[in-house]
Design brief:
Number of domains: 2
Radius of gyration: 21 Å
Structural class: alpha+beta
Distance between the termini: 50 Å
Largest sheet: 5 strands, antiparallel
Mean pLDDT: 88
Low-confidence stretches: 1-5, 142-148
Shape: elongated
């Protein structure tokens, strides 16, 4: 049951988010976002375009409050404002705006404000869960909920594998590998990188899933990933790094586990 004084969606989430660009006079001023699989939604401003940290946050909060009272789920709520006439100060979402998805609020924020301080992790309890995924409501159990992963390349192969290093802030954290002859590719954390490598995995595996869905050959996919800039959570393929070949995937895993 929702608290009696609750008037809006939750403001933070650990779930993936769908988001739409909010523009004013053709200039991007923020993103309106809704969580996928959680009751969270909100507005994040582009710091370079809007130095006022209250006016538009309050404006979009009020609009989302209206959607909340209507009983709309978060993604349906943000779509409700597509094509609505632009507010003179706080903009709008133009008809035909392209909806995008990010694996987390932090990734969305980094795209919107690449030169700003990273967004923090937020409250310990989000989406009705602890960070481990354990529900706060004990009646829902104690184990981490199953997460259905999107279709992607096979994670095993009997062929030699091509691989490139992933670095974050100058440190090696993982390898991206692909088979040149089989439909197999994956992100392989380096054991010495610990939690840093595991945290970075989400974005790389989402990119692999997207490439798989687009019908891209595994080796072509990881070569394309060289074009992505450094991400504050997931790093990048080391600039100028050579594409190397391991005779087997087990050989590459032995490198990663040293």
């Amino acid at each position: 049951m929702e608290p009696a004084n609750k008037v809006n969606y939750e403001c933070r989430t650990r779930k993936p988010v769908r988001y739409l660009p909010v523009t004013s006079g053709g200039r991007l001023i923020g993103y309106l976002w809704g969580a996928v699989g959680s009751n969270a939604a909100g507005y994040e401003r582009c710091l370079a375009a809007d130095s006022d940290n209250l006016t538009c946050l309050s404006f979009w909060f009020d609009r989302l409050s209206e959607n909340y009272r209507q009983g709309l789920d978060p993604v349906a709520a943000i779509r409700q404002w597509i094509g609505v006439p632009e507010h003179p100060r706080c903009g709008g979402i133009v008809a035909g705006a392209v909806e995008q998805q990010a694996p987390s609020l932090q990734h969305m924020w980094a795209e919107l404000n690449p030169h700003a301080e990273p967004m923090g992790e937020g409250p310990w309890i989000q989406d009705g869960e602890f960070p481990s995924g354990t529900p706060v409501d004990r009646s829902k159990g104690w184990s981490t909920p199953d997460i259905v992963s999107p279709p992607t390349y096979a994670k095993q192969t009997g062929s030699p594998v091509h691989y490139v290093p992933v670095i974050k802030d100058g440190d090696l954290i993982a390898y991206l590998w692909a088979s040149p002859t089989e439909l197999a590719a994956d992100y392989l954390p380096v054991a010495s990188a610990g939690e840093q490598a595991r945290t970075a995995a989400g974005l790389w595996r989402m990119r692999l899933s997207d490439s798989y869905a687009a019908g891209t050959a595994p080796l072509q996919a990881i070569r394309h990933f060289r074009e992505y800039p450094h991400d504050f959570l997931s790093g990048q393929i080391a600039p100028g790094a050579r594409e190397l070949v391991a005779s087997t995937l087990d050989e590459l895993k032995s490198f990663a586990n040293r």
